[in-house]
Amino acid sequence: MLVICEECSKKYNIDESKMKGDRARFSCQECGNIIVVVKQKNGLPDGLNVASDPAGSHRD
After folding, report:
1. Which ranges constitute the DSSP H helices of 1-60?
2. What is the overall mean pLDDT for the chain?
3. Which of 5, 16, 38, 60 has fewest C-beta within 10 Å?
4. CA-to-CA distance for 40 and 49, rounded, in angstroms?
5. Element housing 30 (H / E)
């Protein structure tokens, strides 16, 4: 799955099969933004997942 940081547009290729649950959270290596990834449901087409911090906070 392709994930793009909403703050700095850095791209990440996430392997969903290595995710333990339905969601994963990590910090962007470029800007420190918290990225939340939600696993795609079976049957839905793969698409672009634009990631963002759900709380709306950003580290300066």
Report:
1. none
2. 79
3. 60
4. 9
5. none
Which H or E run contains 34? strand 34-38
In the predicted structure, residue 59 carries a pLDDT above the cut 80: no
- Own/partner pairs, 30-38, CB within 8 angstroms, 24+ separation: 30/5, 31/5, 31/7, 31/59, 32/59, 33/5, 33/6, 33/7, 33/8, 33/58, 33/59, 35/3, 35/5, 37/1, 37/3
- CA 31, 36, 41, 42 dihedral sign is positive
Distance CA 22, CA 15 (A): 12
